[in-house]
Amino acid sequence: MSSIIASVFSKESLFALSLFPYLGFLWLMTKRVETPKTALIGFYLTLVFVAVTIPIGAYAQLTLHKSLADVDLLHGGAEFFLTLSNITIAIGFSQALKSVDS
Description:
mainly alpha, 4 helices, flat, membrane, transmembrane, DUF3593 domain-containing protein, DUF3593
């Protein structure tokens, strides 16, 4: 019984389940006309980060027998997409605030 609970609450299954609330968030933000388009693009780029990180992490684990966090070049490459999405979100909301002030 405890192995079933452990598998349900493993980091991999929780990671997969966390996509559903995020997809709901994206759906709601897409429906709102007030959402800055550049920020919305940044939120969608977060999905690109996830889509890139999963195969890179699998490659590190299966081929190099290391965690993604232990392979600096691969980890840095994956984190680039998270940085890109965060910067895009910040620019989008910054532009929106500037347009409200004008």
